[in-house]
Structure formats: C-alpha cells, structure tokens
Design a protein that fits this description.
Elements: E1 8-12, H1 19-32, E2 37-39, H2 57-69, E3 75-78, H3 82-90, E4 95-98, H4 100-103, H5 106-116, E5 122-127, H6 134-145, E6 150-157, H7 175-183, E7 189-192, H8 193-197, H9 203-212, E8 217-221, H10 239-257, H11 261-298, H12 305-321, H13 326-357
Bound molecules: phosphoenolpyruvate and manganese (II) ion.
Phosphoenolpyruvate (PEP) is lined by residues 14, 41, 45, 78, 99-101, 127, 158, 192, 195.
Amino acid sequence: MQELEAKILIAGPCSAESYEQMEKVCHFFSEQDSVHYIRAGIWKPRTRPGSFEGKGEEALQWLEILQKKYPRVPFMIEVASPTQLEAGMKYGLRNFWIGARTTVNPFLVQNLADAIRPLKNLHIWVKNPMHPDVHLWLGSIERLENTGSCSMLGAIHRGFYHHGKSPFRNDPHWSVPMQLKTIRKDIPLVCDISHIAGKREFLHEILSTALWLNFNGFMMEVHPEPDAALSDKSQQISFNDFLRILQTLKKNNDFKNFIPESIRHYRKEIDHIDFEIIQLLSSRMKLAAEIGEIKNIFQIPVFQPQRWKEILSTRPEWAEQAGLSCHFIEKIWVLIHNESIGIQNEIIRQCAQKKINTPDTP
Ligand code: PEP
Ligand code: MN
C-alpha cells in the first residue's frame, strides 16, 4: 500500500456470482494489500430483462461471512434505491457506489439521500450520469453531501453513453471529469477504466490517460476467471493482469517523484536569473522615483502619453529581436509602467502633504 498511498484503488468483480468466486477475490486482495475497497455488484442494472441481474440478497449473505473472514479490505456495492441500501446495511456494509443510471435521475438520488440522512459514517462514491452533464453529476454529489452522513464522498468517472464510432464502450469525454475536478478540488476523483474501455485490450490506454490527468485513483473489474464471468466478461481482468497494472501504477509513482539532475541544474540557473531580474527591476523603480521628484519640482504630469507610446513601440521590437513574444513583453511592460506611475504619484502625493503640513511663513 505504501508506494501507492496517493492512489485509491477499487477492484473486484463486476458481479458477486458465488461464494467461492468471492472467497478467491477476498483471498487475493487481502494477501497482496494494494486495494482500498473490493467492489462487487449485487443487483445488476441490465439493459434487457433475462440477462444475469445479480444474486441479490443471497450475495449479501456471502459478503457478510467473508467480511468477517477477510476484514482487511472492505466491500463496496452499488445501490440504486433505499431498499437496496437498507439491505446492504443489514449485512454490515457501509461503502456504496451510486451507478450511472441512478446519478442521471435527481428523484432517485434524492430518495437515496433521504434514506442516508439518518445514518452515519458512510463512504459514498458517485459515478457520473450516462450523459456528459457535469452539473447533474455535481448535483448528485451535493444531494448526498447535504445529508451530512458521508465520512467519505468521492466521484467515479466511468465515461458516457455514445452512439458514434468509438473503440471504447463509453466515451471518456475527459473534459467533463476535469471540469468536476476544477469545481470540486476537495472531492477525490477516480477513473473506472473497465467501464470506459469495455474491452481488456483498451485498459492500458485509458489508464495512461487517467494517470496523465492525475486522477486520484482507479476502479477496475477483476475476476478469478474473467472469461467465465456472468457479466461484462470482455472487460474484466485476471489476478495476473491486475498485478501487471499494479506494476504500471508503481512505476508511474516512482517516475512522478523523479526529477532528473539536468532539471535541477537548470532550475538553479533560473533562480540566479530571477534574482537578477528582481535587482534590475528594483534599479528601474529607483530611477522612476528620481524622475518622480523632478516631475514634482517642474510640475510635469506623471503620465506622459508620448513616452508611453515610445516604450510600447520599442520594447516589443527589442523582444522580437531577442526571440521573445511581443505580446508577452507588452503585457510585462504594462505592469512595469503602471508600477512606475504608481511610485511617482505617491512621491507627488507625499510632497503635497508636506507642503500642507509646513505652510510658507509670511
Ligand atoms: C458497475 O460498476 O458494475 C456498473 C454497472 O457501473 P455503471 O453504473 O458505471 O454502468
Ligand atoms: Mn460491470
């Protein structure tokens, strides 16, 4: 867990299918200690009836037994209604995620929030809604936050429904989770790489992008025998594949802390240059102050349009000759000139004040 302290990992099968399957999962994750929650679907939201819809309460009984046998990693399940929440609580569960098909509907989220309000210390993770609407996602988070019952409230990016051509099951539309991250810096944001990818072969690509975008962690579907899984079998990975992903995460972590010597060297030089820039700016402002004294004596207005025009035409030109952007230098000189004007105005104000305080003797 040490090396990955910064990343939250939620892993486990799409669905809890049997006691034996869940025992293998618990055994594996308890042994190698890298995962913060074991996920397991109890009721599966399926597009059409007749496909595997989860084992329901029977699976909750397995989880209750297994949580006692393997207490190190807590379970997390999906709930879509107060009834499901109550059932989970009855079997000792305290960590829940809200699925995309629930987040999309404020009525359903509010029902859940009302059921959560009298409870305490829940961990709730909110998946994005089916379509890319950051406000709907935020709204669900806020409804749950307003209950005051969540000791942990997080967001899960699982991609968005699309009907165009895309290799992925759900369109990642990365700008939406990034918007959420900007608005709610305090909410941890993890990426459900499995439900975005839809196929094992795309997991690495999604993982790399999510790492690059600095997500706070990952959700992924891991199954003891992925090809025999009763739901989402093409996106679930084996324990060995999970270990390989873990290696990538660890390498990335090391890599993130690594600063090459050449960068340290250049940074030192930059420090010297910045120091000199500050000394030069200080000298420039002292000269501006001298000019301020003279302007005061001769009663010359501080702002001289002609001089400002001259500055604005020469500095960008010099910048261009030096390979710098004119626009950048123009912006800097607006600031420098304003500062000089400010210094001179202050000198004139102080001189006027002195005059008032020491009136001429008749
Ligand atoms: C799931 O995580 O198993 C699931 C159904 O997710 P989503 O709500 O993202 O479709
Ligand atoms: Mn799934």
